[in-house]
Amino acid sequence: SKLNPKAGNEAVSLSAEELSANEVAQNDGSIHICIFSDRVEGLKCTLKSTALNAANPEKIHIWVVTDNVTSVNVAAEFLEDTGLKIHPLDLDGVVAGLMDAGHKPVWTWDQYNSSVLDDKANWDPSWANENTARPGTWDHSTMHMHPLNHLRFYIPHIKQFQELDRIIFMDDDLIIQGDVQRAWDAKDNLPEGKMLVGACEIWKWGDSTSTFQYSGKNSSYAKSSALALTGRFESDTLCSADKSSQCVGENHWENLRKRSIEINGKPFEPETQPEWNFGFTLFDLEQWRKLKLTDNYEQWMHANYDDHIFPETSLMYGLGVPFLTYYDHVACWDDVTEPKILVRDGFGYISYPEFAFNGLNASYLTSGFVLHYDGWLKPWYPEADPIFAIPYKKTMENQKAVEYRKLLEDPDTVKHKLDVQTSFVVLSEPRAGSGWLLDVLDQHPDICASGTHTSVGARVGFPHDIFLPYNKGQKFFDSHREKMRIQCYWSFIDQQLPRVIENREEWCEKGRIPAEAQDITRHMKFLCDWAERHNEESLNKAELFNEYFAQVMKANSTSWSCQCPQSAKVMGTRLMTDWIGSQFAGKRNFNFDMYERDSGAASLQDQTVPSVWKALEETKPKVIYFTRNIMDELISRKVAAKTGVFHVKTDADEQKLKSKATGITFDPHHAANELLSRVQHRRYIDSKLSSMDLDVLEINYESCMSDMGHCLNTIEAFLGVNTTFEYNFMQTRKSVQSNITEILTNYDEIIQVAAKKDVLSYLSTPWQDLAKSLASTSSLMSKQAHKKKVIPGSAWRTYPMNLLEVDSKVGVSDVFDHRAVHQMARAQHEMES
Fold it and tell me: What's this model's pTM, rounded to 2 decimal places?
């Protein structure tokens, strides 16, 4: 391990051990910061911001414990003109020094790794007993048990730090926007018994909004997933026959209270302890040694292995044990500093729409002493949120925080600007697989078609059914009003904006929101901003829909919380053909162009009714007309209704579909009439499209299933994007297939009625092949005889009945971001639910 000689202005290269012997790591007025890292980009950014915003950067010593000294030297060379003194410490050397001093770190114990089942970080259920807290299905990562995770608890005993009375410990994904001297001096203000100053502002997953919610300092151990309570009563956390994850054994809490008295000498009262994280921390090493907290940590670890409390790959092990170790010894930054040091957290997993949805603005960023990008979206990644990445980019351009503050506070900066060159609409028939198509296309870096294949996209991307009419999804809209993405739907605008306009003075200007409007309180700013563009007298829903449609096609996220990735060049969504015209409107289901009959004639002229055709004509997006053989679609819907499986998402769903999608009877006259109705509606759609000046590509389900690559290449060429992108079909869906004769018991009756009504030509090839086979035997054959008839297998191709959705998985490279991994995994779990 070598000190960068340029950083220290030394003539020779000295080892870290020699520097310690020469009292470099002494209480001599210098500032000492410890980082565990091997990431060049992270170190560059974090340390450059530290130097730029420090009054005396030459006083700052950075000690980097790493298993890749070369990467640290690369970063040090980049930072050689900053004045920082950077000391790489080889991890093996640090550990050897600890062991030479008589310490036996946790990861060297015989019990280490005893609760792990496999190399996928799953825990072993056989390890559990009545004391065990069983993690959720989302909670399994080896980073929680990584040796570096344990090494933090031996910092006071690392050779280079043995003489220090304090040290700043921080992650390598920070932007420091203030002078670290202020953080260093916070030791002088620590209350009696406190030895750690941590970041206590917390973001949590919100079930009601399906987004991350800002809790501020309003969180405690009692609300944390790290100790299994998550705001529940103890009795509600107990495992049962119906609950085997995110629960605890019957003796868990009693054992924790007993161990707390034995080890901490205090009762376990989680509601009294602030939730915090390690991202930017000051350790009072004098107090640490006095309180013997490394011994305390090892006692909790022995208790964990003896009592089987927390599985090692769980967040509870990675962060819960530290919570117990430092119980009652933690202070929050803003409680011990003046002016207050504010550590802003979560910028690596929240998105700007979630940020704004929580009522936060640019001042939250600019007032932060530290910005912590804990999570998987580091600011140096291309897919990072463009607004949150500004401090990183400006830091790398040698700008101090005060210099880019005005840029962040400029209202134009927070507008999500996209270079959308093309927009498209997938105009889809039912059961044609348009959801699958959008999910696949969304993987293309140039295409924004739903966003749901990523964790962030599933929270803030444009929904598939953004144009869903209210009455077709009333139950959905009424039960999801608090969800952030609900404001992106046309039906939400259609239902709620008139209410806000009517009460604009009371609700928007005076802020007096009555009880009956409380369920849309979180959306009120968005609705009030939109209401300002309209007044009650001039509100016309047809014009409003045209305005809304145009903004969707431009991916204009200044209007709502949904957004496309910054790289998107093409924006697309879908419209179902059943949502257009009067044919499938029903008495209470209001469709677009709902007064138009399938004949093309209008039963009533009403210029206030939203019209898809007028919106398409004005905006002129490209149209992908996605169809499926009509009889196949009817049977697919019939199977879904009988089995209850409309979209296959799990192996269990697939097995259920295969086992129950047999022996179905379909009334032949109903089938034929439905077929005729669908044929008429398709002719109506065909006629409208052919009469408009639009670019239309017609694709059918059958051709896409037979040659998926050609299908996607055709669409890519139509949209004008790169046609060499390789899609990951394991992240999307696949077909579940069965033969028609296995599905329907009375396929022969359907064929006979279809022949009489002259609609055989609208049946798919397998149906027509079957009709020819039946006709060659006897057109008068009875139903019973048909049942005994054996149809040669060579006359059939398999019949795709449904689409299987396989959720994508998101990886994380961070070793220390426990809460970020927890938040990401929790979000993924919510999506899967």
Answer: 0.83
